[in-house]
């Protein structure tokens, strides 16, 4: 087969990760030839699409799963701090692109939306207060408020109190500097600026094979509109969502040995009724059910997609062997290899609560699922809400059999190929994750790129986020560029 073109970089998959990596690489090496291959006829149709994720700018302001409670009643905030730091780096990259004209209007993808945590029951109220006391001392969580007064909570999010029984112990934290992000819109914005700088994006281009030859080049092969294509590249990034695992397996790199994937799907309830939407301008996260995966933390969210406002509640976990919404029912079975059979079997036997949770969710009736919404919005009426299918996630099964709810960067030892497995907090941490990948794949260039990376993301590798003055200055700079609310000083 003839080779269509040799490229410096091939990005497999047209989602937020590939788009973020492509834009950063263009800043570091403007002369490199870059091609993005997307198997569907539009970008961000899978996990990056606005209805395939919650659209939360994940900064741990409201997500309770990042702050587990210790046996002594104290709250561990270490994960929350890491997640917030990562999102600040992502914000810095966005701000740089806005300030340098590569993103014309940040309002097209990000907007200020208050973030709340909301709980009920005396034990949960005590937990939330302990969480707030721990977080509010850190500059990244400046301005966070706590209240167990129903009237104060009503001012923050009226729907939470409509129809609620009086006397029930409730509490909430409130931060007015949270964000709602349309990662689908952002992906397309980044792709447009990549194209303007010389990159190409091919649609309906399904990659079927990845292999390396003795000349050190990667051969990327597949079909586009039924016709075969064949590119060679010095560097390949596999950002294909759930299909990253099988494609990295095809590449045959030893680093993928032992890794498997566990697919989890989801559903949301959605309404666009103006009289309902107008009463709730916030993202409100509650506590997950026992045994639920982190991606199943219940939340009632304001969403703005294509200029229209909605409320979305969920997610409800589900299961299918597909690795993508528009995938195959054979995906899971095709990913099982001799080297990952034992880790996958071990995961199944060591995650019985998760398995039982998924079974109960799949078998749960639509009426039972609607009842879950009543915990956050007691006056909700089922007829006002429609069910939508959310994105498909493939959680990482590590070679030791551990099930990992997060992202995993896989890179070959020589840095010529890399990929991303897993999900959540995913898109919000795209910039630091891709910078980590670049550092691993291009160590010989990293020092030379240092000054440009410091411009792009001055917070990458930063260790002084506990300094109030410098941290608030950093947050204020990105808030100004992105036209979103600034956090308030401590106290």
From TrEMBL:
The keyword Heme does not apply. GO terms for molecular function: (S)-2-hydroxyglutarate dehydrogenase activity; L-malate dehydrogenase (quinone) activity. Pathway: Carbohydrate metabolism; tricarboxylic acid cycle; oxaloacetate from (S)-malate (quinone route): step 1/1. The lineage of its organism: Bacteria, Bacillati, Actinomycetota, Actinomycetes, Propionibacteriales. It holds the Pfam family Mqo. This is Probable malate:quinone oxidoreductase. Its cofactor is FAD. Its EC number is 1.1.5.4. Belongs to the MQO family. Keywords: FAD, Flavoprotein, Oxidoreductase, Tricarboxylic acid cycle. It catalyses: (S)-malate + a quinone = a quinol + oxaloacetate. GO terms for biological process: tricarboxylic acid cycle. Gene3D superfamilies: D-Amino Acid Oxidase, subunit A, domain 2, FAD/NAD(P)-binding domain. The keyword Oxidoreductase applies. It is an enzyme of class 1 (oxidoreductase). It comes from Nocardioides baekrokdamisoli. InterPro entries: FAD/NAD-bd_sf, MQO.
